[in-house]
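Task 17 of the worksheet. Students: predict the tertiary structure of the chain below and write it out as structure tokens. Keep your answer in the requested format; marks are given for formatting as well as content.
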Amino acid sequence: MRYIIWMRGARLGPIWMRGARLGPALAGLAVFLAACGGSSSANSPTTGSTIVFGAAVSLTGSQSKEGGLTKQGYDLWLDWINARGGIVVNNVKHPVAIKYEDDQSNANLSATLVQKLITDEKANFILGPYGSAATASDAIVAERNSIPMVEANGAAQSIFSKGYKFTFGVLSPANKYLTGVIDMAATLNPKPTTIAMLTANDNFSVEVAKAVEDYAPSKGMQVIFTKQYPAAAPDVSGLISQAKQKNPDIVMNSGHLAESIAINKAAKQLGLDAKIFAYSVGPSTPDFISALGADANYVYDGSQWTPQVKYKPTFYLSVAEYVKAYKAKFSSSDDPDYHVAESTAACLAFQKAIENAGSLDPSKVRDALASLDVMTFFGQIKFDSRGINTFKPMVVEQIQNGTHYTVYPADVANGSPKYPTPSWSSR
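Model answer:
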């Protein structure tokens, strides 16, 4: 019906141009068209080409757990955006596809796969891998091809020290990961004053540890023991024995999930007691609790995001809606951890930048990312001149009775620190 009337209207057009006396009749026709939905149809978005995102993610290897969480975050957004027809660019809805490659937790392989995604898979844009090492490698490829990459799991600031123009990170940088734990510790009674700092030798972990060493004195604390170990080291018992001799109030580890689990197990086996155990990566994940059981209790971590944050997003889902969507999609009783949330945030940054650019041109999208300033369920996404999101704070969480509680800062906390940590023998 609409099609026939529209065609008649098209034939009347030239007559109206020749004689204004037909105006009333055409006005009536316009009203009829509107009633039939003709005008809304004309303004409805059409469907355009598929936007292809490429992602080389650790689905196997030593960082496969974190890589799996990264993929969950991407896929959660993918379902949501395609349920709405895709990303709207100049009134055209573009469906979205994400093409994945498994980098096997190998940073060099990750870069090779990103080039494959761009060259062979025709990816329009790149979503980052898991880990700072892989992100640093992938950033070289993104820059060489002038293809924007938004990443969510490479926090080392060294990634952004090369003058790259096409790499953006939505997460708070590495130097923020454990300084919040120090801020929290400074509020406790009796106040802890000595720290043992264990550090994997990758760039991210080293940056986290250095920030602790630089920041602790400003809060009246001293790092009395510091030691690096090879990333993914299978045996850390020697480090724990050395740290035990120093009798620190706080034991910190800057590393990843597998290393955090190994250090916690060794601390129990060797009887290293401390008032606070805090690890940069690991405790926020469900796997940390499932691997350690009750021994995971009392451990702290600096977190990019928790379900207790109180951000008021301007688009996408609220915090509560995000948690609900995650549990429904992945049939999980666990809340999403921050790796999932920050990965979704990378997709949101791309979505909003593409909409703002009104184009799929990589350079225009890159410029839109550089000027982006938007509030999401994950927090503010805004980049400094290097491409780092220095505008979003982190929080501190602690595992209590097998459950994650946000314990700092107080304005978002849903629990208070269980302090001091009981000795292993008394648990």
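Marker's comment: The chain has three domains: 2-39, 49-173+309-382, 176-303+395-426. The first helix runs from residue 2 to 18.
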